[in-house]
Amino acid sequence: MAKENIINTQKKIKVAFICVHNSCRSQMSEAIGKLLAADVFESYSAGTEIKLQINQDAVRIIKDLYHVDMEKDQYSKLISDIPQPDIVITMGCNVNCPYLPCKFREDWGLEDPTGKSDEEFIKTARTIESKLRELRDRILSKQIP
Fold it and tell me: Exposed/middle/buried for 80, CB within 10 Å: 0-12, 13-18, 19+?
């Protein structure tokens, strides 16, 4: 009897990184998520408001650290512009985010590095990287449905 190839018909989990302006932390999370966890989940970012462009310090730091050009495939988006997420990660904006239906929600409590030193941007990027690796592991181990 020949072995059949089994095609995984499960859709990838959709993770939305949400912040007020979708210009810095959420964009960094989307970029790093696409780089480090694309095999496990799809990364999206959005905000309750938008800016004309992604924070240029964030763009530069992500390019320097991860060799990813956020401006190539990313832009500031509203929550209504992204697919319905399974997981919502808020950045810690100290505002009440609008209700966004999901299976799991978590707040990462990240300080906004906007207007601060490169060291603060690097610290934020490394914190996001660590949290993304942890999120990926929790999804793979079924700790998050």
Answer: exposed
Prediction pTM value: 0.90
Residues in the chain: 145
Domain boundaries in the chain? Answer: 13-140
pLDDT at residue 11, as a whole number: 84
- C-alpha to C-alpha distance for 90 and 57, rounded to whole angstroms: 21
pLDDT tens digits for 2-25?
Answer: 444 344 446 899 999 999 999 999
Instruction: Kindly give the residue spans of alpha helices, DSSP state H, lying in the chain.
Output: 25-37, 56-66, 70-73, 118-140
Beta bridge partners of 90: 18, 107
Has domain 13-140 been given CATH number 3.40.50.12160?
no
| Contacts for 10 with CB less than 8 Å, ≥ 6 apart | none
